[in-house]
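Quick note —
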Amino acid sequence: MSDSNHLGVPMCLEEFGLACDGSKWPPGFNTSATPRPRLGDVPYGKKFRSCTVENKLALTYDDGPSQWTPDLLDILKEHDAKATFFVSGIKLYDDLVNHRSEKTPAIIRRMYNEGHQIAGHTWSHPDMDQLDSQQRRHELIKGEIGFVDILGFFPTYMRPPYNICGAECQTDVGELGYHVVSVEAPAISQMA
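Predicted structure written out below.
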């Protein structure tokens, strides 16, 4: 099981000799020294889960892009609807040797060009409360590298995998200049 379908999973077992995507650093500009100014009134490093405009809802998709994302984008465009896509950085690559996906950059650019919000969902989709501060930081920075390569910038909004991000996690995420988006309602769909 050393193909690209198995090597990127969160439970990839490096101790058994497999090269796991989750532990690799992607090629590209390392964003760790990038200034992270605080702008606006949206809190940094604190979860928020509701819209500020009455009678509005936020349509969000986690863990993409997937093979169904282009169809979803077509539907959203047909209905003039916008969404936020929480993208796991590892999905920007085809395999564990960090080869850039051929299709994914075009999908990410299409999301952005059609007015959707692109947000982070970590690099390898771990439970952020099970990581130490440095591991959490690496999860976010690895994802940023792929976004910079595709879009020229990285997002400042993120949703923690499994919607888990306790006080220490929120502090670490806030120090990197992220707004933490939570979920109010249970997930009702699969990957986008």
